[in-house]
Protein backbone atom coordinates (compact mmCIF):
# COMPACT_ATOMS: atom_id res chain seq x y z
CA UNK A 1 0.00 0.00 0.00
CA UNK A 2 1.28 3.44 -0.88
CA UNK A 3 1.15 5.76 2.04
CA UNK A 4 0.21 9.28 1.11
CA UNK A 5 0.55 11.95 3.78
CA UNK A 6 0.36 15.69 3.33
CA UNK A 7 3.17 16.75 5.60
CA UNK A 8 2.36 20.45 5.61
CA UNK A 9 -1.01 19.83 7.15
CA UNK A 10 0.45 17.58 9.79
CA UNK A 11 3.22 20.00 10.64
CA UNK A 12 0.64 22.73 11.03
CA UNK A 13 -1.38 20.51 13.33
CA UNK A 14 1.59 19.56 15.48
CA UNK A 15 2.47 23.22 15.91
CA UNK A 16 -0.78 23.95 17.76
CA UNK A 17 -1.36 20.73 19.72
CA UNK A 18 1.37 20.29 22.30
CA UNK A 19 3.07 17.00 21.68
CA UNK A 20 0.19 15.98 19.41
CA UNK A 21 1.53 14.10 16.45
CA UNK A 22 4.88 13.35 18.01
CA UNK A 23 3.56 11.92 21.22
CA UNK A 24 0.98 9.86 19.37
CA UNK A 25 3.72 8.18 17.42
CA UNK A 26 6.59 8.10 19.82
CA UNK A 27 5.77 4.46 20.38
CA UNK A 28 7.18 3.59 17.03
CA UNK A 29 5.47 5.02 13.99
CA UNK A 30 7.04 8.46 14.00
CA UNK A 31 8.28 8.35 10.41
CA UNK A 32 4.65 7.98 9.34
CA UNK A 33 2.61 10.64 11.12
CA UNK A 34 -1.12 10.15 10.75
CA UNK A 35 -4.01 12.49 11.36
CA UNK A 36 -7.25 10.58 11.42
CA UNK A 37 -10.53 11.81 10.01
CA UNK A 38 -12.91 8.87 10.42
CA UNK A 39 -13.22 5.44 11.93
CA UNK A 40 -15.83 2.83 11.17
CA UNK A 41 -15.92 -0.87 12.02
CA UNK A 42 -12.32 -2.03 11.73
CA UNK A 43 -11.20 0.73 9.37
CA UNK A 44 -9.48 4.04 10.13
CA UNK A 45 -9.30 6.73 7.47
CA UNK A 46 -6.82 9.59 7.72
CA UNK A 47 -7.18 13.12 6.38
CA UNK A 48 -5.46 12.09 3.16
CA UNK A 49 -7.80 9.20 2.51
CA UNK A 50 -5.42 6.41 3.58
CA UNK A 51 -7.30 3.44 4.99
CA UNK A 52 -5.90 1.27 7.74
CA UNK A 53 -7.13 -1.85 9.48
CA UNK A 54 -7.14 -0.91 13.16
CA UNK A 55 -5.57 -3.60 15.29
CA UNK A 56 -4.71 -0.84 17.74
CA UNK A 57 -8.38 -0.88 18.87
CA UNK A 58 -7.97 2.79 19.73
CA UNK A 59 -5.48 1.88 22.50
CA UNK A 60 -7.72 -0.96 23.55
CA UNK A 61 -11.31 0.16 24.15
CA UNK A 62 -12.92 -0.49 20.76
CA UNK A 63 -13.76 -4.13 21.39
CA UNK A 64 -17.01 -3.85 19.40
CA UNK A 65 -15.28 -1.92 16.62
CA UNK A 66 -15.60 1.73 15.73
CA UNK A 67 -19.08 3.21 15.92
CA UNK A 68 -20.97 -0.02 16.54
CA UNK A 69 -24.70 0.43 15.95
CA UNK A 70 -25.94 -0.44 19.48
CA UNK A 71 -23.62 2.11 21.09
CA UNK A 72 -24.24 4.82 18.49
CA UNK A 73 -28.02 4.37 18.80
CA UNK A 74 -27.93 4.48 22.60
CA UNK A 75 -25.81 7.62 22.60
CA UNK A 76 -28.05 9.37 20.06
CA UNK A 77 -31.12 8.53 22.12
CA UNK A 78 -29.46 9.73 25.31
CA UNK A 79 -28.80 13.16 23.81
CA UNK A 80 -32.58 13.63 23.85
CA UNK A 81 -32.74 12.71 27.56
CA UNK A 82 -29.73 14.32 29.30
CA UNK A 83 -26.02 14.99 28.91
CA UNK A 84 -24.94 15.42 32.51
CA UNK A 85 -26.98 15.70 35.68
CA UNK A 86 -24.44 15.55 38.54
CA UNK A 87 -26.31 12.79 40.26
CA UNK A 88 -27.21 9.17 39.84
CA UNK A 89 -29.16 8.02 36.83
CA UNK A 90 -31.20 4.99 35.87
CA UNK A 91 -28.44 4.21 33.37
CA UNK A 92 -25.81 4.04 36.09
CA UNK A 93 -27.83 1.54 38.11
CA UNK A 94 -28.55 -0.60 35.05
CA UNK A 95 -24.89 -0.62 33.96
CA UNK A 96 -23.73 -1.42 37.51
CA UNK A 97 -26.21 -4.28 37.75
CA UNK A 98 -24.90 -5.79 34.53
CA UNK A 99 -21.35 -5.50 35.82
CA UNK A 100 -22.25 -7.40 38.96
CA UNK A 101 -23.66 -10.16 36.78
CA UNK A 102 -20.62 -10.32 34.51
CA UNK A 103 -17.58 -9.84 36.76
CA UNK A 104 -17.20 -12.38 39.60
CA UNK A 105 -15.69 -9.96 42.15
CA UNK A 106 -18.26 -7.21 41.52
CA UNK A 107 -20.70 -6.82 44.41
CA UNK A 108 -20.64 -3.02 44.37
CA UNK A 109 -19.53 -0.70 41.58
CA UNK A 110 -18.07 2.80 41.53
CA UNK A 111 -17.63 4.45 38.16
CA UNK A 112 -14.95 6.95 37.24
CA UNK A 113 -13.63 8.57 34.10
CA UNK A 114 -10.27 6.86 33.56
CA UNK A 115 -8.51 3.68 34.53
CA UNK A 116 -5.81 5.70 36.26
CA UNK A 117 -8.36 7.24 38.61
CA UNK A 118 -10.05 3.93 39.26
CA UNK A 119 -6.68 2.41 40.24
CA UNK A 120 -6.18 5.24 42.70
CA UNK A 121 -9.65 4.63 44.13
CA UNK A 122 -8.87 0.93 44.59
CA UNK A 123 -5.64 1.75 46.40
CA UNK A 124 -7.39 4.23 48.65
CA UNK A 125 -10.01 1.65 49.54
CA UNK A 126 -7.32 -0.92 50.33
CA UNK A 127 -5.42 1.48 52.50
CA UNK A 128 -8.56 2.60 54.33
CA UNK A 129 -9.58 -1.04 54.86
CA UNK A 130 -6.23 -2.18 56.25
CA UNK A 131 -4.76 0.94 57.83
CA UNK A 132 -1.51 0.11 56.02
CA UNK A 133 0.22 2.22 53.39
CA UNK A 134 2.49 -0.13 51.42
CA UNK A 135 1.38 -1.29 47.97
CA UNK A 136 3.02 -4.23 46.23
CA UNK A 137 3.15 -4.19 42.44
CA UNK A 138 5.05 -6.19 39.83
CA UNK A 139 7.88 -5.26 37.57
CA UNK A 140 6.67 -4.25 34.11
CA UNK A 141 2.98 -3.98 35.07
CA UNK A 142 1.30 -0.68 34.24
CA UNK A 143 -1.43 0.87 36.34
CA UNK A 144 -2.05 4.24 34.74
CA UNK A 145 -0.29 7.50 34.31
CA UNK A 146 -0.30 8.20 38.05
CA UNK A 147 2.38 5.53 38.08
CA UNK A 148 4.84 8.03 36.72
CA UNK A 149 3.83 10.84 39.01
CA UNK A 150 3.32 9.11 42.31
CA UNK A 151 5.23 5.94 42.25
CA UNK A 152 8.36 6.94 40.33
CA UNK A 153 8.42 3.42 39.01
CA UNK A 154 11.37 3.64 36.64
CA UNK A 155 13.86 4.94 39.21
CA UNK A 156 12.49 2.36 41.60
CA UNK A 157 13.27 -0.47 39.27
CA UNK A 158 16.70 0.85 38.41
CA UNK A 159 17.63 1.13 42.05
CA UNK A 160 15.87 -1.90 43.33
CA UNK A 161 16.90 -4.33 40.63
CA UNK A 162 14.94 -7.52 40.41
CA UNK A 163 14.60 -7.84 44.20
CA UNK A 164 11.89 -6.05 46.14
CA UNK A 165 12.63 -2.78 47.88
CA UNK A 166 9.99 -0.49 49.35
CA UNK A 167 10.36 3.05 48.11
CA UNK A 168 8.74 5.97 49.89
CA UNK A 169 7.13 8.37 47.45
CA UNK A 170 6.82 12.05 48.14
CA UNK A 171 3.42 12.71 46.55
CA UNK A 172 0.33 12.35 48.65
CA UNK A 173 -2.77 10.33 47.82
CA UNK A 174 -5.41 12.91 48.53
CA UNK A 175 -5.91 13.11 52.27
CA UNK A 176 -3.86 10.03 52.94
CA UNK A 177 -0.13 9.82 53.60
CA UNK A 178 2.26 8.91 50.80
CA UNK A 179 2.29 5.37 49.52
CA UNK A 180 5.24 3.06 50.04
CA UNK A 181 5.78 0.99 46.96
CA UNK A 182 7.24 -2.48 46.81
CA UNK A 183 8.09 -3.98 43.43
CA UNK A 184 8.58 -7.68 42.81
CA UNK A 185 9.30 -9.70 39.69
CA UNK A 186 6.21 -11.28 38.17
CA UNK A 187 5.37 -14.97 38.52
CA UNK A 188 7.43 -15.81 41.60
CA UNK A 189 4.97 -16.85 44.33
CA UNK A 190 7.64 -17.44 47.01
CA UNK A 191 8.78 -13.83 46.88
CA UNK A 192 5.18 -12.65 47.31
CA UNK A 193 4.66 -14.98 50.29
CA UNK A 194 7.85 -13.76 51.95
CA UNK A 195 7.03 -10.10 51.44
CA UNK A 196 3.43 -10.36 52.63
CA UNK A 197 4.45 -12.30 55.72
CA UNK A 198 5.78 -9.03 57.17
CA UNK A 199 2.12 -7.99 57.51
CA UNK A 200 2.51 -4.38 56.38
CA UNK A 201 1.16 -4.48 52.81
CA UNK A 202 -2.27 -2.94 52.19
CA UNK A 203 -2.73 -4.35 48.69
CA UNK A 204 -1.17 -6.41 45.97
CA UNK A 205 -2.06 -4.95 42.59
CA UNK A 206 -1.42 -6.78 39.34
CA UNK A 207 -2.45 -7.17 35.75
CA UNK A 208 -3.59 -10.81 36.01
CA UNK A 209 -2.20 -11.28 32.53
CA UNK A 210 0.78 -9.02 32.08
CA UNK A 211 -0.50 -7.30 28.98
CA UNK A 212 1.43 -4.09 29.15
CA UNK A 213 4.58 -6.05 28.55
CA UNK A 214 4.30 -8.96 26.16
CA UNK A 215 1.05 -10.61 27.25
CA UNK A 216 2.64 -12.99 29.73
CA UNK A 217 0.23 -15.41 31.37
CA UNK A 218 0.42 -16.16 35.07
CA UNK A 219 2.13 -19.48 35.71
CA UNK A 220 -0.26 -22.28 36.72
CA UNK A 221 -1.08 -21.87 40.41
CA UNK A 222 0.48 -18.41 40.68
CA UNK A 223 -2.74 -16.42 41.04
CA UNK A 224 -4.05 -18.96 43.57
CA UNK A 225 -0.82 -18.70 45.57
CA UNK A 226 -0.98 -14.89 45.64
CA UNK A 227 -4.64 -15.08 46.68
CA UNK A 228 -3.71 -17.41 49.57
CA UNK A 229 -0.80 -15.23 50.67
CA UNK A 230 -3.11 -12.19 50.68
CA UNK A 231 -5.68 -14.01 52.80
CA UNK A 232 -3.03 -15.21 55.24
CA UNK A 233 -1.64 -11.69 55.76
CA UNK A 234 -4.83 -9.59 55.67
CA UNK A 235 -3.78 -7.98 52.38
CA UNK A 236 -6.28 -7.01 49.68
CA UNK A 237 -5.81 -8.45 46.20
CA UNK A 238 -6.53 -6.00 43.38
CA UNK A 239 -6.76 -7.14 39.78
CA UNK A 240 -6.19 -4.33 37.33
CA UNK A 241 -8.34 -5.63 34.47
CA UNK A 242 -8.35 -2.39 32.51
CA UNK A 243 -6.96 -4.32 29.55
CA UNK A 244 -7.96 -7.90 30.32
CA UNK A 245 -11.53 -7.09 31.35
CA UNK A 246 -14.03 -8.16 28.65
CA UNK A 247 -11.22 -8.87 26.19
CA UNK A 248 -10.04 -12.15 27.69
CA UNK A 249 -13.71 -12.99 28.05
CA UNK A 250 -16.90 -11.42 29.43
CA UNK A 251 -15.84 -11.93 33.06
CA UNK A 252 -12.19 -11.01 32.51
CA UNK A 253 -9.11 -12.87 33.67
CA UNK A 254 -10.69 -13.59 37.06
CA UNK A 255 -13.37 -15.67 35.41
CA UNK A 256 -10.93 -17.33 33.03
CA UNK A 257 -8.54 -18.36 35.84
CA UNK A 258 -11.12 -18.85 38.59
CA UNK A 259 -9.39 -16.58 41.12
CA UNK A 260 -11.50 -13.79 42.62
CA UNK A 261 -9.76 -10.62 43.81
CA UNK A 262 -11.12 -8.32 46.51
CA UNK A 263 -11.22 -5.34 44.16
CA UNK A 264 -11.08 -5.07 40.38
CA UNK A 265 -10.31 -2.10 38.19
CA UNK A 266 -12.07 -1.97 34.82
CA UNK A 267 -11.79 0.51 31.94
CA UNK A 268 -11.16 0.58 28.21
CA UNK A 269 -13.63 -1.91 26.64
CA UNK A 270 -16.16 -1.10 29.39
CA UNK A 271 -17.70 1.72 27.30
CA UNK A 272 -16.29 1.02 23.84
CA UNK A 273 -14.49 4.33 23.51
CA UNK A 274 -16.31 6.56 25.97
CA UNK A 275 -14.33 7.69 29.01
CA UNK A 276 -15.62 5.33 31.67
CA UNK A 277 -13.75 3.16 34.15
CA UNK A 278 -14.80 1.53 37.40
CA UNK A 279 -13.57 0.00 40.59
CA UNK A 280 -15.71 -2.93 41.66
CA UNK A 281 -15.39 -5.33 44.54
CA UNK A 282 -16.61 -6.89 47.71
CA UNK A 283 -19.35 -4.98 49.46
CA UNK A 284 -17.49 -4.74 52.76
CA UNK A 285 -14.59 -2.94 51.11
CA UNK A 286 -16.56 -0.94 48.58
CA UNK A 287 -18.69 0.55 51.35
CA UNK A 288 -15.56 2.46 52.32
CA UNK A 289 -15.90 4.48 49.12
CA UNK A 290 -18.95 6.11 50.59
CA UNK A 291 -17.75 6.26 54.20
CA UNK A 292 -14.08 7.17 54.17
CA UNK A 293 -12.70 7.43 50.65
CA UNK A 294 -13.33 10.53 48.60
CA UNK A 295 -13.60 9.52 44.98
CA UNK A 296 -15.49 11.72 42.62
CA UNK A 297 -15.18 14.13 39.76
CA UNK A 298 -17.19 16.47 37.59
CA UNK A 299 -17.60 13.98 34.78
CA UNK A 300 -18.13 10.75 36.72
CA UNK A 301 -21.18 8.91 35.35
CA UNK A 302 -21.82 11.54 32.69
CA UNK A 303 -25.11 10.45 31.14
CA UNK A 304 -23.99 9.98 27.53
CA UNK A 305 -20.97 7.96 28.62
CA UNK A 306 -23.20 5.83 30.84
CA UNK A 307 -25.57 5.21 27.92
CA UNK A 308 -22.56 3.96 25.97
CA UNK A 309 -21.52 1.80 28.94
CA UNK A 310 -24.93 0.22 29.27
CA UNK A 311 -25.14 -0.47 25.52
CA UNK A 312 -21.62 -1.95 25.48
CA UNK A 313 -22.23 -4.15 28.51
CA UNK A 314 -25.53 -5.31 27.05
CA UNK A 315 -23.69 -6.42 23.91
CA UNK A 316 -20.97 -8.10 25.95
CA UNK A 317 -23.53 -9.89 28.13
CA UNK A 318 -25.30 -11.19 25.01
CA UNK A 319 -22.13 -13.07 24.07
CA UNK A 320 -22.44 -11.87 20.46
CA UNK A 321 -19.04 -10.12 20.25
CA UNK A 322 -17.25 -13.31 21.27
CA UNK A 323 -19.05 -15.35 18.63
CA UNK A 324 -17.42 -13.11 16.01
CA UNK A 325 -14.09 -12.43 17.68
CA UNK A 326 -13.37 -16.08 18.48
CA UNK A 327 -13.40 -17.59 14.96
CA UNK A 328 -11.93 -14.48 13.30
CA UNK A 329 -9.11 -14.42 15.85
CA UNK A 330 -8.37 -18.10 15.37
CA UNK A 331 -8.30 -17.75 11.57
CA UNK A 332 -6.07 -14.71 11.85
CA UNK A 333 -3.66 -16.49 14.15
CA UNK A 334 -3.43 -19.49 11.89
CA UNK A 335 -2.73 -17.30 8.86
CA UNK A 336 -0.11 -15.30 10.70
CA UNK A 337 1.61 -18.38 12.07
CA UNK A 338 1.91 -19.77 8.56
CA UNK A 339 3.10 -16.46 7.16
CA UNK A 340 5.70 -15.88 9.87
CA UNK A 341 6.79 -19.47 10.26
CA UNK A 342 10.32 -18.84 8.95
CA UNK A 343 10.75 -15.30 10.19
CA UNK A 344 11.50 -15.94 13.87
CA UNK A 345 8.21 -14.40 14.89
CA UNK A 346 6.16 -16.20 17.48
CA UNK A 347 2.42 -15.58 17.21
CA UNK A 348 0.24 -16.47 20.12
CA UNK A 349 -3.13 -15.72 21.67
CA UNK A 350 -3.96 -14.82 25.23
CA UNK A 351 -7.72 -14.99 25.53
CA UNK A 352 -9.30 -13.16 22.63
CA UNK A 353 -6.77 -10.44 21.83
CA UNK A 354 -3.92 -11.47 19.60
CA UNK A 355 -0.36 -11.07 20.73
CA UNK A 356 2.29 -11.05 18.07
CA UNK A 357 5.45 -11.93 19.83
CA UNK A 358 8.64 -10.95 18.11
CA UNK A 359 11.81 -12.43 19.43
CA UNK A 360 15.04 -10.61 18.72
CA UNK A 361 17.55 -12.98 20.20
CA UNK A 362 18.67 -14.40 23.47
CA UNK A 363 19.82 -12.10 26.22
CA UNK A 364 20.66 -12.91 29.81
CA UNK A 365 18.09 -11.48 32.23
CA UNK A 366 20.56 -9.11 33.82
CA UNK A 367 21.20 -7.41 30.48
CA UNK A 368 17.60 -6.66 29.69
CA UNK A 369 17.71 -2.92 30.06
CA UNK A 370 20.53 -2.65 27.54
CA UNK A 371 18.75 -5.09 25.29
CA UNK A 372 15.65 -2.95 25.47
CA UNK A 373 17.49 -0.07 23.88
CA UNK A 374 19.04 -2.25 21.20
CA UNK A 375 15.84 -4.05 20.29
CA UNK A 376 13.50 -1.10 20.27
CA UNK A 377 14.52 -0.12 16.75
CA UNK A 378 13.77 -3.60 15.45
CA UNK A 379 10.23 -3.76 16.71
CA UNK A 380 9.58 -0.18 15.69
CA UNK A 381 10.60 -1.10 12.14
CA UNK A 382 8.26 -4.07 12.26
CA UNK A 383 5.32 -1.87 13.29
CA UNK A 384 6.17 0.66 10.57
CA UNK A 385 6.32 -2.14 8.01
CA UNK A 386 2.86 -3.34 8.99
CA UNK A 387 1.59 0.21 8.66
CA UNK A 388 2.77 0.24 5.06
CA UNK A 389 0.68 -2.86 4.53
CA UNK A 390 -2.36 -1.01 5.82
CA UNK A 391 -2.38 -2.50 9.30
CA UNK A 392 -2.08 -0.43 12.44
CA UNK A 393 -0.89 -2.33 15.49
CA UNK A 394 -0.13 -1.29 19.00
CA UNK A 395 3.61 -1.64 19.47
CA UNK A 396 3.41 -2.74 23.03
CA UNK A 397 5.60 -4.23 25.65
CA UNK A 398 8.97 -3.08 24.49
CA UNK A 399 10.59 -5.65 26.68
CA UNK A 400 9.96 -8.38 29.07
CA UNK A 401 12.21 -10.74 30.90
CA UNK A 402 11.28 -13.52 33.23
CA UNK A 403 13.30 -16.45 34.38
CA UNK A 404 10.02 -18.34 34.32
CA UNK A 405 9.76 -17.87 30.59
CA UNK A 406 13.33 -18.50 29.53
CA UNK A 407 16.31 -16.20 29.40
CA UNK A 408 15.25 -13.97 26.61
CA UNK A 409 13.95 -10.53 25.88
CA UNK A 410 10.77 -10.19 23.88
CA UNK A 411 9.53 -7.21 21.99
CA UNK A 412 5.85 -7.51 21.36
CA UNK A 413 3.25 -6.08 19.10
CA UNK A 414 -0.19 -6.75 20.35
CA UNK A 415 -3.45 -6.24 18.56
N1 LIG B 1 -4.27 -0.11 34.02
C1 LIG B 1 -3.90 -0.74 32.90
C2 LIG B 1 -3.60 -2.20 32.97
C3 LIG B 1 -3.79 -0.06 31.69
O1 LIG B 1 -3.39 -0.68 30.59
C4 LIG B 1 -4.12 1.33 31.66
C5 LIG B 1 -4.01 2.10 30.42
O2 LIG B 1 -3.45 1.67 29.43
C6 LIG B 1 -4.51 1.94 32.84
C7 LIG B 1 -4.59 1.20 34.00
C8 LIG B 1 -4.86 3.38 32.86
O3 LIG B 1 -6.07 3.63 32.23
P1 LIG B 1 -6.40 5.07 31.63
O4 LIG B 1 -5.47 5.29 30.47
O5 LIG B 1 -7.85 5.00 31.24
O6 LIG B 1 -6.17 6.08 32.71
From TrEMBL:
Gene3D superfamilies per record: Aspartate Aminotransferase, domain 1 (3.90.1150.10), Type I PLP-dependent aspartate aminotransferase-like (Major domain) (3.40.640.10)
A Gene Ontology molecular function term of the record: transaminase activity
Superkingdom as given in the UniProt entry: Bacteria
Keywords: Pyridoxal phosphate
Cofactor(s) for this UniProt protein: pyridoxal 5'-phosphate
Keyword Kinase appears in the UniProt entry: no
PROSITE patterns, sorted: AA_TRANSFER_CLASS_3
InterPro entries: Aminotrans_3, Aminotrans_3_PPA_site, PyrdxlP-dep_Trfase, PyrdxlP-dep_Trfase_major, PyrdxlP-dep_Trfase_small
Ranges annotated as spanning the membrane: none
Protein family (similarity comment): Belongs to the class-III pyridoxal-phosphate-dependent aminotransferase family.
Protein name as annotated: Glutamate-1-semialdehyde 2,1-aminomutase
Species of origin: Asanoa ferruginea
Amino acid sequence: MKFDVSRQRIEAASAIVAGGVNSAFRSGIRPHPLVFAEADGAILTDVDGNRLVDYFLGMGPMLLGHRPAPVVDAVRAQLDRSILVAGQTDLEYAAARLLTELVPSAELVRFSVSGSEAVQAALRVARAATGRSTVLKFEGHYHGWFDNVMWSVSPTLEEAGPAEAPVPVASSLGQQPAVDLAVLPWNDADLVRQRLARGDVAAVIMEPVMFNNAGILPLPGYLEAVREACDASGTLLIFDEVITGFRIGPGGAQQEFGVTPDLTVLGKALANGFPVAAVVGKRSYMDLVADRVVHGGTYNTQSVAMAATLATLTEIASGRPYETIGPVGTALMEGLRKEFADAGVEVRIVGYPAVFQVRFGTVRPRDYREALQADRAAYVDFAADLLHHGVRVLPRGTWFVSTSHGDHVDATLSA
